[in-house]
Amino acid sequence: MTLQDLGSIGEFVGAVAVVVSLIYLAVQIRQNTHQLEHNAEVLRANAELDSARLSTDWNAQLAGDAELTRIWGVGLNDPSRLDAMTGARMGMMLGSLFYRLEGLYRLHRRGFLPEESWLPWEQLMRNVLSTPFARAWWESGGHPFSQSFHQRVDELVAMGADPSSRAGGVER
């Protein structure tokens, strides 16, 4: 066997190794793609759960405390009946709700919370912000929300409430 024959065998073995490596990489890329798709689905499912959890937690918070329920209802429907302390509590409740909503908004913008899950929250914001107290609270500014969330909420304020809905789910 000549040196040229050994070189040819080496080239052949090298070519086979390259083909095997390419096949291996293709399989790895396919598996990685499937894993990424699965991870994205898990993130979407978690966002849906977070959305449901927000609703459940918020309703449980109000239902579990008669005074908070009263403050929420009065604050949305007749804020003139709120004294300084209950007005401050109402503002904190709005802040708590909107901090949670901003989290869902970010998930929605990143594609993890589908439109059909996000739209009811936008409608809730529109309805709540159509009330005098909530509108004044929002327009007072000073809320540490992201610029994009501020812009979206301002757009919702400009749209006004859906006349067929009740603000915040509280009877008027």
Count of helical segments? 6
| Major sheet size, sense and barrel closure | none
Rough outline:
rod-shaped
Q: What structural category do the secondary elements indicate?
A: mainly alpha
Structure report:
With 172 residues, this protein is an all-alpha fold. It has one domain. It contains 6 helices and no strands. Helix 1 packs antiparallel against helix 3, helix 2 crosses helix 3 and helix 4 crosses helix 6. The C terminus is likely disordered.
Could you outline the blueprint of secondary structure elements for this entry?
Blueprint: H1 3-63, H2 66-77, H3 84-109, H4 115-129, H5 132-139, H6 147-159
Summarize the structure.
The protein is an all-alpha fold. It has helices spanning 3-63, 66-77, 84-109, 115-129, 132-139, 147-159.
Sum up the structure in keywords.
172 residues; mainly alpha; 6 helices; 0% strand; rod-shaped
